[in-house]
């Protein structure tokens, strides 16, 4: 069975395992106060051209989202997000468990835009009952989104501008950020640092064993952030493991290379489905693709491949195939052959 | 200025003020442990034909909703409600502040139905990522709804049946329950007691100075409920004031009378708008009506009347006029005359 | 049975009931946006010599405490309080339910002092694991305390100074504030306004049917406070009832008069116990007194009087007798006679 | 610099790193639904002689504590713990952030006993204001405690008996459990499974890179536990890493061996301090020891060793030295020599 159902099915880049082995018996302080974390933080700040940023490392995405959002909001405030957003749909109410509402905006492709945000906020402010309605105070987007789509630099500029004009924070969930960085005309790391209040650089889905790097630009949010990490269960004892991984990912452009490879292989798959006349439900340029398959096709491909089954639509069932840092050309080519034979 | 913008603009039924005066210097135990509360609880249980119900009195609606829902749910559970539901739209995220998601179902008229609930719950259970999604564990409806519409007995029977089959609790917010009881074919109090796990009988909007009576039928929810009332700030020191009010409302059919009068006057207003060819945005049979007025009409009526301005729609602006226990025939007739003159 | 077990056993001052009656059919806007609340707010600001204060009215003490504290703290912050503090011991964990720890300081008499606060905060800051420990950010005291004792003006000055030097907020719970104002050398309202970040003036225990007036001095805490009131269930629909009560209490010095009378009667009782050689467990100059009675004495007094039974100590059982705005000279004299006959 | 300040300063047992390397390119399902986790769960159930237990793997201790406690308690319930307990003192209010109070019991040595628990619970139940006080519903202890002491089997039997008689849950935090298992007369794993409702087996401090294994015995707590893990941010994407580690720890008695070695080396250190006439502040038989050093001694030892500085006491400063799975005999002997030379 060759598995494409998600991008966290394998371990980590060999370089990372190697670093763990090489440093295994060293003694360093815990909780991120070690030289590897310090170095990784500096490398990321440099990569983001953001010397004043605060960089923190957490273990996983849900933990990161809830920690950032809990740290940012006052009790009566909520976070605007697409109705398909991960924090809304697939984190078991972790944001609500910190006391905050996720306020949803409609979206066909996983993205929301500046005018939706502006309209929502202005409507709230004009409502005579505004104090009876959760106050929108942050915008959450994913880059790429849960449906594989990406924000262009221009779109992010617009979102950022409207957030700043209205006094909202902008938070970008970059669980699969390397894939967005592999696309044309999308924001680079320095753009994210310039346009966001906070974003995170995903490691788990790009070759780390685990780990996400939070980059905080907004000074108010920097204050006491480590307390909140600890409170939410995210203060990792052997913190250097996170530093070692991000040092590795940001050495020799490895992080970008991982993203480019994931995207390249996914596009090969995408082309194969398209050539076969199979509809792709979302127009994703990144490492997740969503072919609409009929029952026959699902049955046939399931013999040798694992992939994710999503919702039924007219025309069949939306499925999801992901490439990962560990996907091999050979396995992708084998799948392409089988797609051609459907 | 004659005010119709809501139904909590005046004090209380004179009978209630009279009872406060008559008992003012009596000494009774606090926190609801007094003979007046005891008597009121018994009157309500009798009225509901539910001798085993637990009845508690709280001060207001938001407090009641958050106390009931926090008492009922485990941390990973959420409450299904119409997207227009009061807990979703007008309680400043009070449910989220207790840690729980409000899961919204679409609704044109403020109501949700049994098949929507069933579909949502079954889809959740079939989802391979079900543990990553908030578990629906309660259904919240308002009777009447925020748009003035009512559930028929048949509709409530269906909702109750689906909830029981699927193991969800059913909670009915009766902030304006007397108005629903004044409509044909709607559930009576014994029906609510038979079909719900918990519901509340609204006092604030039906002639009390303040107060809502929670009726709990589900044994699991009865346990330790007073702790939760205290924790959420709802344990009223001079509790007898709540008992005195509900004793009064349930003496001589006063509660029903108040609802009937509110509804009767609202329907007179409704007919006047209809006769004038003015659209009513929601087809409400209760004490809130929603005429769509143009700017000219709004300006003209605003000279002598206060009413609530809601959202813009094609054709004008949705407004809301409410009658209350204190609305007078004379004031309503005066407004009708002015509607005729528009 | 004559009851002295607490100070919320009767209704309200006749002047308040009269105001309710006189205004009962007036129509005013809800949620505190009415002329009576506006006037009461101005009266309180004047009384406090604090024209820039924000004044809000809530229904009860627990609700007020949790609303203020939830509004003030970030998630990792806690509130310092005496181990006997009401928020620690008698509010069913309402502060924790908003996510915050109550950090307790030891106290023999219900009071905490400036050096305890300073020592705790400095120890926290010097601890190498400070980020693993809740950050103290507010000091909560009650005036008078739960054991009837009062802070002198000098003591409050010291607490305020240390809070300001260390960057903590100071919050005074004034559920029984009128009794403290009736004592010598205690802070007056303008002192509280000058020295605190926020405090509340208790109505429920001083002749109101219900209601507490929160006075906010700290600008950061003023922002969006009404959202938090609504979220925590404290936005009272017929808000003018709160305004009417505080207008009345602050007319003609009525609030002070109530406190003076409560204190005067309590001191008569206290003297009677002392004359009889009965120990008073706390040295309370206010309306709560705590005689240590033996079983025989408890049995005898229980025949005609209700009072509160607290903990056992060597020498007997600590009991509590309270006077209220409605206590009569005749009833107090009758009790004194029976104390003399013990 | 040789470091003894904590037991999470190094990486992991070489056997674990080896397993990561050997399986690195395998594809397995995420979130703990893989064969390695399945096998590790079975090994632990067998080791505990608890075939019906539910076993879950989480990343760290704070995350585990807050997930278990949030899953177990209703909103008005709290957890009893020693005032020195990790959840009270060193987790930044993570329990309060889930809405629950930690109710502290006094303790000189980090342990609490059955009679303390019984007395607290009975006092609460007898209090006339019991509904105004957080309801104790769980007892939390650490084995070993934060001060290195251990509960004997007899003591745990007593605690368990009182919890069952009173209807409270018993939760044992086993962050350093291997060290307790290396002591005489302490509960074995099957004892813990028989006597507790839930406990966890610590990996992070016993040779794992990270990871704690929660063992749930109480059926009510098993239900939907994975939802709560996800909600609190603890659902680890590449879950097999946790399974691989616990498989390794429970192969060939490795877990016990690690604990025995940590304890053996710590006792050598302890004897050296004692021989030198240096007081040990707590009488710890496990891997943490607490010598009271004077400034001179601290200065001298600091030249070559890192250790933790705790509080000042009469006679000097309490310090902490920990041994870990990676401590070498040579380093310990070197330190002993330097202790002798103090």
What is the 3D shape of chain A? globular
What oligomeric state is this? homotetramer
Helix tally of chain A equals 15
Query: Strand order within the widest sheet of chain A?
Result: 2-8-7-6-5-3-4
- Helicity range of the residues of chain A? 40-55%
Measured by residues with Cβ under 8 Å of the partner chain's Cβ, the largest interface is: B-C, 53 and 53 residues
Rg of chain A, rounded, reads: 20 Å
Give a quick precis of the structure.
Four copies of one chain form a homotetramer. By secondary structure, chain A is an alpha/beta fold.
Verbal overview:
The structure is a homotetramer of 342-residue chains. Chain A has 342 residues and is α/β, with parallel strands linked by helices. Chain A has 15 helices and 13 strands. In chain A, the strands form three sheets. Chain A has a seven-stranded mixed beta sheet, sandwiched between helices. Chain A is globular, with a radius of gyration of 20 Å. The longest helix of chain A is centred in the C-terminal third of the chain and has 22 residues, at 254-275. The mean pLDDT of chain A is 97. In chain A, helix 2 (35-47) packs parallel to helix 12 and helix 6 (114-126) runs parallel beside helix 7. Chains in contact: A-B, A-C, A-D, B-C, B-D, C-D. The interface between B and C is large, with 53 and 53 residues.
